[in-house]
């Protein structure tokens, strides 16, 4: 890091890397967590970049903005004078940029797009797409403006756990296959960044069986491939229920009557069954939480937001993430 660089960590000490890759099984809220993390890392006058690479425009939908172009744009302000910018990386635009940067084929590249050659290239070589996407993320992460980094942190809303290993490892495979030239050089640079201490892969999960199993599998794969796993982020958690004996139907009936609510047999029986179901559910959650703890990684729990993930909800999640240590 240059001496002129400002601190790159938020108030907590749990996010020391510069590039934060956020993955998770579909439906776990990884885009919301990535956005909240970008807000947390921008607090205190920092600038972060929030990047998506799947073409879903999830960031725009989350913040209620127009679809993001292939251009870094102001997304929102952060507490303390910080700024979050956003970028939706498009593989075709990234290829045009690559051709212009390394081969000076700006006009020729645009002509190739009209002929459909770029789409053809990324179709017959699917790995090329991921090389281009990760290459753009690497460029933004390492870019400098004057005597300091352009961004204090970059947060990547990455592909889901089912393909995160392949997505991150494609540059290493490309570097191994390419013999010489810019493709080999760029691939080696990206592969080195992704496996360096500058990068951490965070896995988002819910306390449900399938997401937890995919989390365990993804962490094992990432570790085997040599990527640094940062945190397990457990999203959508509920307050713990105090341990104690089961409430009887008689007690439920007395409580309903005291509150002036209907206390007929069907209502009491229904509440008792719901209470038993909740107890079973909480016991399962406790068991899954224990499985995650056994991974030996830092773990952060985020609450279920009753009103959904609006701006206030994002700020709540950002505050909790910023406290991580």
Write the layout of secondary structure elements.
Layout lengths: L18 E6 L5 H13 L4 E6 L5 H6 L9 E6 L3 E7 L2 H13 L2 H10 L1 H8 L1 H17 L1 E2 L2 E2 L3 E5 L6 H14 L4 H13 L4 E7 L3 H17 L3 E9 L11 H10 L6 H29 L5 E5 L7 H12 L3
Parallel strand pairs: 1-7, 1-8, 2-4, 2-7, 8-9, 9-10
Antiparallel strand pairs: 3-4, 5-6
Structural notes for this entry:
GO terms for molecular function: ATP binding; ATP hydrolysis activity. InterPro entries: ArsA/GET3_ATPase-like (IPR025723), ATPase_ArsA/GET3 (IPR016300), P-loop_NTPase (IPR027417). Keywords: ATP-binding, Nucleotide-binding. Residues 20-176 form the ArsA/GET3 Anion-transporting ATPase-like domain. Pfam families: ArsA_ATPase (PF02374). The radius of gyration is 23 Å and the shape is elongated. The two termini are 22 Å apart. Helix 10 packs across helix 11 (265-293). Strands 3-4-2-7-1-8-9-10 form an 8-stranded mixed sheet, sandwiched between helices. A two-stranded antiparallel ribbon has the order 5-6. The protein has one domain (19-241, 296-322): Rossmann fold (3-Layer(aba) Sandwich), CATH 3.40.50.300. Helix 9 links the parallel strand 8 and strand 9 (229-237). Mean pLDDT is 84; it is low at 1-11. With 325 residues, it is an alpha/beta fold. It contains 12 helices and 10 strands.
């Amino acid at each position: 890091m240059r001496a002129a660089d400002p601190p790159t960590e938020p108030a907590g000490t749990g996010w020391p890397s510069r590039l934060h890759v956020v993955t998770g099984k579909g439906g776990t809220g990884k885009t919301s967590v990535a956005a909240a993390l970008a807000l947390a890392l921008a607090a205190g006058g920092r600038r972060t970049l929030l990047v998506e690479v799947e073409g879903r425009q999830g960031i725009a939908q989350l913040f209620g903005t127009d679809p993001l172009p292939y251009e870094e744009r102001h997304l929102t302000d952060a507490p303390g004078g910080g700024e979050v910018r956003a970028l939706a990386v498009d593989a075709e635009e990234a290829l045009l940029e690559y051709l212009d940067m390394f081969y000076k084929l700006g006009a020729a590249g645009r002509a190739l797009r009209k002929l459909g050659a770029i789409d053809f290239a990324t179709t017959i070589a699917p790995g090329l797409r991921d090389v281009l996407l990760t290459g753009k993320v690497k460029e933004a992460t390492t870019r400098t403006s004057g005597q300091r980094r352009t961004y204090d942190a970059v947060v990547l809303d990455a592909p889901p756990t089912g393909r995160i290993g392949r997505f991150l490892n494609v540059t290493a495979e490309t570097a191994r296959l390419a013999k010489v030239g810019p493709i080999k050089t760029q691939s080696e640079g990206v592969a080195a960044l992704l496996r360096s201490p500058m990068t951490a892969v965070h896995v988002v999960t819910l306390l449900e069986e399938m997401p937890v199993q995919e989390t365990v599998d993804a962490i094992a794969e990432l570790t085997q491939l040599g990527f640094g796993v940062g945190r397990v982020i457990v999203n959508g958690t509920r307050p713990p229920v105090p341990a104690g004996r089961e409430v009887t139907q008689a007690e439920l009936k007395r409580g309903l009557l005291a509150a002036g609510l209907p206390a007929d047999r069907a209502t009491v029986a229904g509440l008792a069954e719901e209470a038993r179901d909740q107890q079973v559910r909480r016991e399962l959650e406790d068991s899954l939480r224990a499985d995650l703890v056994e991974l030996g990684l830092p773990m952060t729990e985020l609450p279920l937001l009753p009103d959904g993930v609006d701006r206030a909800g994002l700020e709540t999640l950002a505050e909790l993430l910023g406290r991580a240590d």
